[in-house]
Amino acid sequence: MGETQKTPHKKLYLQVYxxxxxxxxxxxxxxxxxxxxxxxxxxxLGVSRTILREAIKSLEITGVxxxxxxxxxxxxxxxxxxxxxxxxxxMYISGxxxxxxxxxxxxxxxxxxxxxxxxxxxxQEDISKIExxxxxxxxxxxxxxxxxxxxxxxxxxxxxxxxxxxIFSKIPNKLVLSIINFFWAYDRKFKIKQPSSRHLRxxxxxxxxxxxxxxxxxxxxxxxxxxxxxxxxxxxxx
Length: 238
Known about the structure:
This protein is mostly helical and 238 residues long. 67% of the residues lie in helices and 3% in strands.
C-alpha cells in the first residue's frame, strides 16, 4: 500500500477509500482479518488521520469493514444490506420521477430471468407457505377495499413482498436474492398511494395464477403467469 496519489477532481478520502480496498484485495485479507493500525496506515498512505478516518467511515457505511475501539479495524463478511440501504436513501432524496419505472423494469428482468430456476427449487412446503401468504394478501385486500383508504395497506404490501421473496428464496445466488429484497424495500419506501380497489383485485388475480401454476406443478403455466404478472397494463381496461 504505497502513498496515495492525488487524482484531479476526486476527493482525497475517496482515493484513500480505493487504496484501502486495493490493499485488502492484494493482501488477500478475509472476513475477521485486521487492517494495520491508523498510525501505520497514515504513514503508508501519506495522509492525515482526519482523511483516513473519513475513508474508514465510508468503508463502514458500505459494510466493507467494522471499526471497534480497542480492537482495531476488522474486515466484514460480504453483505449487500448496507449498500442497498444507502442506495434506497439516495434514490428517495433524489426525487427522480423516473426511478420507479426504472426499478420496475429491472425487477421484471431479474424475476423473469430467474423464474425457471426458482420453480425447480420450490418444495411442497414452500408452495404451502405461498398459499398462506396469498390468503394474507386476500384478507389485507378485503380490509383495504372495505375501508376505502387511499393509503397503501402496509400488510398487503408486506404479504406481496413475502410472496415473491418466497418464490425466489431457494435459488443459489445470494446477490440475486439481495437485489430482489432491494426491490421490495424500495417498494415499501416509495409506494405509499394505493391506486384503486380494482388495482388490488387485479394484483390478487395475478398472484392466484402464479400460485395455481405451482399447485399444478406446471412450469410452462408458471412462466406464463409470471410473464402475465409483469405484462398486464392496469390502464388498458380503465
